[in-house]
Design a protein that fits this description.
This protein is of the alpha/beta class. Helices cover 37% and strands 17% of the residues.
């Protein structure tokens, strides 16, 4: 991985993703987690607990406030973990990561596999299941559309694993 702060761009299957990814990514670097403002921070106590335990910050699903905060964190030496699909379970990548790349951020694609079986949507307790995390090559792209397209394709390749329950 590059030494400089990067934006980790991951698929999102489960609330278990963040814990798994921080265990893999967070040992040698400071990693802040972009967490959906309307879900995690609508309750002040839950938001404070998430910020304290996982280094999360509120990331609105609309507008540019989350992107500006991400840029501030990168400038301060933090790497940032973002789920550009905006929700668990898939969908097209949103354009915000392209804006970050156009501003000079290095994107690192990450594929997470198996976590949807560990903590399925709606579940309150985790289950045992194999999990894999695959980290792709850094993307240094200034064209925002190319950055979104390349990151989405790389994450799709990295998260494809029928044995563990692909994304």
């Amino acid at each position: 991985l590059p030494r400089e702060p990067v934006v980790f761009v991951a698929n999102h299957q489960s609330h278990a993703d963040t814990v798994v990814l921080l265990e893999v990514l967070g040992r040698d670097r400071a990693v802040a987690v972009a967490a959906a403002d309307d879900y995690w921070f609508r309750d002040r106590m839950r938001g404070m607990a998430l910020a304290a335990s996982l280094g999360a910050f509120p990331f609105p699903r609309e507008g540019t406030r989350g992107l500006r905060r991400t840029e501030e964190l990168l400038a301060a030496g933090w790497s940032v973990l973002i789920y550009p699909q905006g929700t668990r379970g898939g969908g097209k990548f949103r354009s915000g990561i392209g804006r970050l790349a156009a501003a000079g951020a290095v994107l690192v694609p990450v594929g997470v596999v198996g976590t949807r079986h560990v903590l399925p949507k709606g579940a309150n307790r985790p289950h045992r299941h194999a999990v894999a995390v695959r980290i792709g090559d850094p993307l240094r792209l200034r064209d925002s559309q190319e950055a979104v397209r390349s990151a989405e394709q790389a994450v799709a390749r990295l998260s494809d694993d029928p044995e563990l329950g692909a994304a």
